[in-house]
Design goal:
By secondary structure, this protein is of the alpha/beta class. Helices cover 37% and strands 16% of the residues.
């Protein structure tokens, strides 16, 4: 009898020990190609966490999936305007910065620009950037680093712009000196006229193949994202490309790490966010993506020059959630696409 009791006690002890060492499971939902695989693997090993990493192509896809009832995710990475929407919808857990000692590594100048979640009560900045223009310097010798390049009749049918309403209309608004978030119908009407002028000179609005077309030489100047451009372009010919943020500025975005209100494992979520903003890890991510480095402590550890700098974004402006006023933009974009 004593042997049976002893065996049962040993078994119970073993079960307790196993339970105490149980691997945490963290579900992260992020943009496609937005984090180095080796950084994720190192997190799994270092913290003994079973990390499940799913991806999405747009804010809209992510939001629709969550609103349709998808559960189980701990962390998602929405852009600023969608952070606003998700706060309003009650989808996010407040951020306890005492659990994120590496939050202090984020450049205070960057934090001061945050308008969509002032004080970062629900979000932690991840990457800040903007669309810009890539020019093939061998094919186009003289040009201004400005949105005015799309006024160039001599480059007609050798340029593209993003198939993105807020990006294109926002570019025209900035060209005119207006806010990318304006709801003034007169300003929007003038921006529409600018875009219709650009439309005569571009091949198409294109958000999918612009980088490939630019890499093959089909297009000589394209509106798009640096990471796409340089992912497709032959790295040995990188000096042929001038990628710039137009001098007038343009729409800007910040993607953010947020914890969902119903996150199953908030402890693991805090561990992950703090890990991402450790200087050596963040430097590896920036080297991989080529974005400006918003983590001040990581900058001395960078091994490559970013595709553009934070200073290039000085005239840029965050896209904000426009609520019902988005219909003003939808109507204008439909008219632009239809040629009116």
């Amino acid at each position: 009898m004593k042997r049976i009791i002893m065996c049962l006690a040993l078994l119970l002890c073993a079960l307790c020990l196993c339970g105490g060492n149980r691997r945490q499971k963290l579900y992260v939902y992020n943009w496609t190609y937005y984090m180095p695989p080796d950084v994720l693997d190192d997190f799994r090993k270092k913290f003994n966490v079973d990390l499940v990493y799913d991806v999405y192509p747009s804010n809209e896809d992510m939001f629709a999936k969550l609103k349709s009832g998808a559960t189980g995710y701990d962390i998602v990475v929405p852009s600023g305007d969608f952070v606003s929407i998700m706060i309003h919808e009650g989808m996010l857990a407040p951020i306890d910065k005492t659990r994120l000692p590496n939050f202090e590594n984020i450049d205070t100048a960057v934090l001061h620009r945050v308008t969509f979640d002032q004080g970062n009560q629900f979000s932690v900045p991840y990457m800040m950037g903007a669309s810009g223009i890539a020019v093939n310097k061998k094919q186009v010798v003289r040009y201004d680093r400005s949105w005015s390049i799309f006024d160039r009749v001599d480059l007609r049918d050798r340029m593209t712009m993003l198939d993105d309403m807020r990006e294109v209309i926002g570019a025209a608004l900035k060209r005119l000196g207006y806010s990318v978030n304006t709801t003034d119908t007169s300003e929007l009407s003038k921006a529409k006229a600018v875009v219709l002028g650009w439309k005569k000179n571009i091949v198409k609005f294109d958000a999918e193949s612009f980088a490939k077309g630019f890499a093959t030489g089909e297009f000589q100047a394209v509106h798009g994202y640096a990471e796409n451009i340089f992912r497709e372009y032959d790295s040995t010919r990188r000096d042929e490309v001038d990628f710039f943020i137009p001098c007038e500025g343009g729409p800007m975005y910040m993607d953010n790490l947020v914890i969902l209100k119903n996150a199953p494992d908030k402890d693991a979520a805090y561990t992950f966010i703090n890990y991402i903003h450790s200087p050596e890890i963040f430097a590896r991510i920036v080297d991989y993506l080529g974005y400006p480095c918003i983590n001040a402590a990581a900058r001395p550890l960078l091994k490559r020059k970013p595709n553009y700098e934070l200073s290039d974004l000085r005239n840029c402006e965050f896209k904000e959630d426009l609520g019902a006023n988005i219909e003003l933009y939808n109507k204008i974009w439909e008219q632009i696409r239809m040629g009116d």
